[in-house]
Amino acid sequence: MTLHLTFAPARPALAAGSRRLLTGAGPPFAESLCHAAICSRSLTHRMTRSDSERLHALDAVRAFALLAGVVLHAAMSYLPGFTIWPLLDRSTSVPLALTFYVIHIFRMTAFFVIAGFFGRLLLHRHGVREFVRNRSVRILVPLVAGWIVVFPAVVATLASARNEGPPPALPAGLERPALAFPLLHLWFLYLLTLLYALLLTVRQGIVTRIDRGERLRGVLDRGVSLAMKSSMMPVVLATPLAAALLALPIWPQYGGIPTPDQSLIPNLPAFVGYGTAFAFGWLLHRQQTLLGLLRRRWMLHLPVAIALTVACVLMIGISPSAAASPEPLSGLPVTVYAACYALAAWYWTFSLLGIGLRFFARESLLWRYIADASYWIYLAHLPLVFLLQLMLKNLPWHWAVKFPIVVSTALILLFVSYHFLVRFTFVGETLNGRRRRRDGDGTRGETPATPHDVVAALSAVTKRYGTTLALDGLSLDVRRGELLAVLGPNGAGKSTAISLLLGLQEADSGSAELFGLTPDRLEARMMVGVMMQEVGLAPELKVRELIDLTSSYYPSPLTVEQTLTLTHTTAIADRPFAKLSAGQKRQVQFALAVCGRPSLLFLDEPTVGLDVQAREMLWAVLRQLVAQGSSIVLTTHYLEEAEALADRVVVLARGRMIASGTVDEMRSLVTRRRIRCITSIAAERAREWPGVVSAAMDGVYLQIVAADADAVVRRILMTDAEAHDLEVHRAGLAEAFTELTQEAA
Amino acid sequence: MIRAYIAEAKYETLRMLRAPAFAGPFLVIPIAMYLFFGMMGGSGTSARAESMPPGPFLLTGFLVMGIMGPPLFSFGMSMALEREQGLLQLKRAQPMPKGAYLLAKLLMSIIFAALVATELAVAAAFRSRVPLTAGQLASVGAVAIAGTLPFGAIGLFIGARVSGRTAPAFVNLAYIPMMYLSGLFFPIPEGIRWIALFSPAFHLNQLALHVAGTPSLLGPAINVAAMAGVTVMFAGLTVRRLVRA
Fold first, then answer.
1. Which of A272, A724, B19, B148 could be stapled to B109 by a disulfide with Cβ–Cβ 3.0 to 4.6 Å?
2. Contact: A530, B85; criterion CB under 8 Å
3. A694 DSSP assignment
4. Is the CB of residue A432 less than 8 Å from the CB of residue A32?
5. B103 close contact with A: CB closer than 8 A
6. Residue spans per domain, chain B
7. From its phi and psi, is residue A657 left (phi > 0), alpha (psi between -120 and 50) or beta?
8. What is the mean pLDDT of each run of 10 residues along chain B (245 residues)?
């Protein structure tokens, strides 16, 4: 039997509160639907906080990639010898050439990864029909409508430029392709549409038929996870791209992946490279824990990206060229360059995603605004940038003056146009989803402080060590101001659960939260105190120094003297840690746990090895802390400790929660009673009665543990009218615990 | 935040100064050996003294010896021990800024390096046979401080991998051969001279000699690049492992 009791707190109210927090302005946003790749807003409201943090981060990276596109196009007018751009300025710039070169390496790869990620999110959440509808509105309509508006504007601008001279001729070999069509910068929406269509065909037509049991997908997931963890992923992803680049009959290497597409048939590198990115984003959404890897490794990926970029520049030379250089490049075969270039694209993408996840995970109104505006800005920027470049191109100014003018004027005009013409109109609704003006700004971001606020939570967490399942879909909330005792036999998953909450390990699936943040965030852990089992602290340091050191990690700790007094360690303050007894060492560890004035304390078997006096002291401090509003999570083997202290008890067995409730509720779960009396009935005889679990003599008393106490008492009195000194006890927590864990086993 | 970095570094240094098995060898042995060999060299005419390398060779040799130890042992040995004893785990659970732990050990190594360098500089000043200007001594000191980096990285590599019990063996396996096969005190046997190219101790010694006025055999740029390479390689390998763990 598995008991599943939930003595539920005000969960719905909390959910509503956190939703308001997530969506920024509450109900007005609730109906909006996400845009291009793209916006996470409507998708956040049913998700946990850390999920939504990931979405904010990806939104920010997507916005960055789009805005970088504006800078890229603005820079292209100043590239010496880069004749693909129709408007060449008289002032040329090597720094801008490098800017162009670097941005072009990664921006679309990053964009398509995010597009794939949000694509699966949308499909998963709303189904195929809504997916098609949504993508049509957000992608296909802007593609068609955008082209209809932008193309004439571009043609008009360029036509006035032609009056000043013939356009630069296309480099040899870059003649018009089949099915030629000037998609302009909107090619990426076209490619995205093709990828969506391809994906739906493959998924609905093939995958769901031949992979009913999801076994293939499981294999794929494991492969992706392995490649990510072993750092081989960039190589895996870069290989097809490098191959496609090399397969081009004529490849102008400086321009990397040849964009924009000039034809309705996408060119091979763009299709392969961005298709890979899209597929990777899709697969990443299947295993979002892998995002944590990207977040933690950004400092590893960024230097590699930079190094690869430097290598590429050294090979190709610093001045741009629109032509295909003959082999070899600086003495190295073109293959090497292609490999470096493709790897650079992926390392840049990985580091950008990592940086986004690391630094832009929190919701910020400013980034939300920029993210929403960026789609419009990118769609609309091209004619404006052309116009500005045209106006400036023959002026005798230095590029360092002209380029900033182009970028800032374009961005200012585009942001202003977004704010006044797009944001609250049908254009914005098409691009970003419905949005209404907010009535007041005062309500934002306030969580209603209910008494049962959750300070730490595991949701549906699974953790495996090799073949052992340590946690099996465990969900656990720790509420503000409660003392929660976590009980369970050895190997039940107590320590694993706590190390997940402390960010020492990551869950295989499910999520852990600490004060609404992921536990590896320093801000979250600054509110947490920890006491672990068996830690060897620096033996040379004195108790006072150990406390001072640990206090330095916290924003507003107790003074050392206060901590010493609180934990009754003043007498040993100047002794080195090595010279302390085992019990004193535990006391010092307790002092380290409380010195930072934590709102949440994790104590792993805190009273092991303490004498009675020290234990009473520790209990008193714990009660005092709870009274002041701190939360405490305690694992213990001493059931009387839980009985004496806990507001709530959860019992774990085999990685699952088998019961949760107050101590009294736990006891009442157990129907067993202990019966004692003086009687002539032999224990052996009583043992055979129905309803008797066990019977034994205890001195003159017969002691029976009974599942059905009433019936057994009746039987005793019927059998032996002389029976006296009858006592019936309810089972203690110890019996309850034993019974529960036996049943679970 | 900054408070945490400072406190961590302060107590790491204090700890190591208080540990006689650590502070003793690294602060005392180089200066003692320098003075001992220096005196022998001072007698001037004996055949033994002829075979001793002249001038700044002794000084930089023992300086490098003093610099190598603290980073190797503090990263290699203490980190392995602290990992095993759960201290690292506790610090990761506490809100210790991630870099503070490593930076503390590095700063401790730098302080030890500075102490050794000062001792040797004072001793050298009393021995008129080492004609180094104050500026040269200061440059040697600066090289000494930068020189802790590759050894820290090697120590880190060991400390992140091996258990506390085997760490001393592994660290000594790196320390002792590196000390003797880098041409610090006596020339390396003819056939295996190339080994020194892979030793950061050799490069550090060359660099120290270079700033003290005896040009480096391979040129200072190569020495710096080799040391930086060792640092980046070992630190990179370790960070990769730590991130995965």
1. B148
2. no
3. E
4. yes
5. no
6. 2-244
7. beta
8. 87 87 82 77 45 64 87 87 87 86 89 86 71 78 88 90 86 86 77 80 88 80 86 82 58
